[in-house]
Amino acid sequence: LSLKFGDIGNLKGLVIRFLLTTTYYQLSVQNWFSLHRLQLLYNHSIQATFNATRIYAPATYSYHCEHVSSLQRYDALLIPSSANDLSKLWEVTFIDFQIQGFNIQEGHFAYAKDSASFFSPAILMGLVMSLILLLVLAYALHMLIHLKSLDRHYECKASPAYFAEMKDNDMGDEKEPLRSSGNESYELRNQQFCKIYI
Known about the structure:
By secondary structure, the protein is mostly beta strands. Helix content is about 15%, strand content about 35%.
């Protein structure tokens, strides 16, 4: 696949050539295409050659990547072919790069296989935050399970008050009139109390 730009400044007949191949893989039961090499031609000769890495997609798809570059800050998918080549003097970067070498229909790209990995920094940060929230929830549940009831801190000094059955002959001993009116009222001599420790 060749992109011909013509004469640009001192560069006569600038051409960017993409060398694509297609291969059948039995595991996926389909053909895949891959970009093997990128060549820069001007002044009627090859001036720079880059080997491409990790640029591939199913033959019925296209390949898309935000940056395809020879620079390390863009993950360097284009690598100079040799140390003696003039490729090291070039810095090549394609922005919003999309390519499809085969099975092109009606001049439009097919569905794109994107170069973005499944574990991008945003996804990793989300997973870490989810893990932290799960740890906090587990700690809270642990504290709730081992929470002791306040009933265990009550300590009564006497048994709960109750009125036992009294015989008629004992009634005089247990009663103490409060006032001598038509209605008789009585109070218990043994008052019980409780202390609460918190």
